[in-house]
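FIELD: query
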Amino acid sequence: MNNKKEQIILAALQLISERGYSSTSVQDIATYCGISKGSFYKYFSSKEDLLMEVFRYNHHQVVLHSEKIERREDLSKREKLVKLIAFEMEVLYKNRDLFLLLHKVVPSHENQKFQPIVKKTKASMIRIHKKWLLYVYGSEVQTVLWDVVLMWQGAIKELIILLGESIRILDKEEAAEKLVDRLDMAVQHMKTMEPILTSDMMEKHEKQEGEEGNEKEDELQNWFLLFKEEVRQLEFQNETEIMEALHLLKREITRGDPQKILIKSLIRFIKTETKLVHSLSWLEDVLEKNEYNY
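FIELD: result
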């Protein structure tokens, strides 16, 4: 993904969160990026095509942040869960219009192209929530795991729908703490009950995630997108050099025969900015696992 396409995605995310999807035109996005409307269509065939990319980017924010929280050593498992839910609420609330739009779009037969990505994203969030519940509660939640996943997702969804102009939750972390309190109670009271949802019933949802595209390549693309945005926000004096190093790093990782010495050197250079060390750990982990034939 080139820099201009990334810029358009980030601009669209910003404008949609501020104005709403229906009030944000292609011309608005192009003007915000300093390009012509014609140039916009070199990167995206339509506003709807861009919407899918924005939705994918937004989802990967949650995925990558989830992994970042899990690696923190200064928090207990329960505290990590609170942080994750608070972040989910913040991202979804900030992009509430996008969230509501896509959940309205999916049932419509006029927008079949949106359905695969939204279904895949739902399956991905189910996987993440399932993983976290097992991580925090262990065997206690095993028999009613899917019921608790449903409670978690239902609570978040309804909160986002309700949180409009008339209802506001200023402290997302406090709200997340209360939600985790309720998950604690649910696990304790439900663990001896017969589950509503069984593993057999949910099997097709777990399979859904792997049916569309290549999840790992999507994650890598979005990691670079998010990391570049982090670099811009931190306003380093050597930002140009860091961006060039990231460009070379991405090109080297995704080529057929990557040079490990070059990759390690580029990572080492970027890590000279200590504020970026933690965010780089996700990339280092996947490279260590050889998930990109590194």
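FIELD: remark
The radius of gyration is 20 Å.
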